[in-house]
Amino acid sequence: MINPLPAIFISHGAPDLPIRGGEVSDFLRSLHRQFPKPKAILVVSAHWHSDPIMVSAAKFPKTIYDFSGFSEQLYQLSYPARGIPELSDRIVDLLGRSGIPCNIHPTRGLDHGAWTPLILTYPEADIPVTQLSIEYQNDPLYHWQVGQALEPLRHEGVLILGSGGITHNLYAFNVNYDATPLDWVQEFDMWIAKTIAEGSWDDLINYRRLAPYASKNHPTDEHLLPLFVALGAGGANVKGMQLHSSYAFGAFSMAAYAFASGT
Predict the structure, then answer these.
(1) Is the whole model's pTM more than 0.85, yes or no?
(2) Which residues form the Extradiol ring-cleavage dioxygenase class III enzyme subunit B domain (predicted)?
(3) pLDDT tens-place string over residues 16-47
(4) Half-sphere exposure (CA, 13 Å, Cβ side) for 159?
(5) Cβ atoms within 10 A of the Cβ of 59, count?
(6) Alpha helices in the chain (DSSP H)
(7) pLDDT at 21
């Protein structure tokens, strides 16, 4: 057993994150300094959906370019981290003990929700990585329970990294990266920050009913669901801490949070 790592949630924004400068890139490049180097990384990405949830057992996960229309420079990047099939077996076992079915995908690679932040935070790609899907037709409570089941991994040197977006309405996207964030984006973002700071987990799980402009910021749930996995993985008496706050394209909160057990 080692001192447990926190569970992390980051907002990954647009796929061109690795080739942009600015606050978010600087934050991600410095994130590794805030806790010990993991033995392995489990990414829960908003961009892999399945029913039931799945975990990849790829030995050498490919870099997936699940986007189009970006600079050719982006398609030249790759993230050649090796996989860790034995972690996939451990995940299936942990989820099964909690009555949560999970299938293994033998070859699934890393989508941009996984590799675009990792190429900034761990550019050497020297930590084995696997990826877990979300079941986006299921609710935040279910994904919180998934996180709870996976909490022992934090004590085994595994970084659980939820990757999505605190806000995500593509219809409000502004082509100007530095556009002033919309009022309703800021109001929702501040509600999330306040709710996490206060530890009001029931309110957070019921965000769609309680948060201002919830459906406007999240026409669908998938980009917020990895947050609840990270929350659940934080453990008993979990505390949340904001690691970063900024905005992009007028519609995206790029906030990031850490979750770990309190004393």
Answers:
(1) yes
(2) 29-255
(3) 999 998 999 999 999 999 999 999 999 999 99
(4) 25
(5) 12
(6) 23-30, 72-75, 85-97, 112-121, 140-150, 183-198, 201-205, 207-210, 214-217, 225-233
(7) 84
What is the torsion angle, in degrees rounded to the nearest 10, for the CA atoms of residue 23, residue 29, residue 34 and residue 35? 150
Helices 225-233/140-150 angle, 10° precision: 40
| CA pair distance 56, 109, nearest whole angstrom | 7
List the domain boundaries for the chain: 7-261
| DSSP state at residue 22 | S
Phi first, then psi, for residue 42 (nearest 5°) are -110, 115
CATH superfamily of 7-261: LigB-like (3.40.830.10)
Do 140 and 205 contact (CB within 8 A), yes or no? yes
In sequence order, which residues have a C-beta less than 8 Å from that of residue 123 and are 6 or more positions away? none
pLDDT tens, residue by residue, 100-109? 999 999 999 9
Per the structure block, which two tokens stand in for 137?
Answer: 């037709």
